[in-house]
Structure formats: C-alpha cells, structure tokens
Amino acid sequence: MPVLDPVLRKDREMAVYQIRLCRTAYAFTTVDVEAASADAAVDRALDYSGDYSYSEKDAEYSIESVIEIERIEK
Questions:
Q1: Does residue 38 lie in a domain region?
Q2: What long-range pairs does 24-31 form, CB within 8 A, spacing at least 24?
C-alpha cells in the first residue's frame, strides 16, 4: 500500500522511497512446566514455546532501510 500524497507533489520536488519497516512485538504467557530442576524447566519451556498462545502487549517499530526508487519533478 503506497503512501503517496499528490498535494505535497504540487509544492515541491519529491521522490518515492521504499522503506523497509521492522515490527518487534512483545507478547507474554505463563505456563506450568514439570521438570527435575529450574534449568530443565526453562529448557523445556523454550523447547515448546511455539506451542503456546500469547497475549501481545506491546510492539516497537524501526526502519531497516531506505531506498530512493523514483524522483518526481513538478
């Protein structure tokens, strides 16, 4: 979905940029793990972490790259 603004183009020279965005989400869940030790419980929880449902609480956005792909002359 391009974010192009024809109103801005009338006033000045513009360009179209390709921006690579990164969304890092933070989600949490609590699980009960049966294991012989706390370290073993952590290992087991990580081994099965993809099998749990998570409640996303927060996300951060960052820019990975910016590339000019088209120069627009008025």
A1: yes
A2: 24/59, 24/60, 24/61, 24/62, 25/56, 25/58, 25/59, 26/56, 26/57, 26/58, 26/59, 26/60, 27/54, 27/55, 27/56, 27/57, 28/54, 28/55, 28/57, 29/53, 29/54, 29/55
Q: Is the pTM of this model over 0.85?
A: no
Is 1 part of any domain? no
**Average pLDDT over all residues of the chain:** 86
Angle at 44 between CA 39 and CA 46, to 5 degrees: 95
Element (DSSP H or E) covering residue 12: none
The count of domains in the chain is 1
Of residues 8 and 44, the one with the higher pLDDT is 44
**Three-state DSSP class for residue 11:** helix
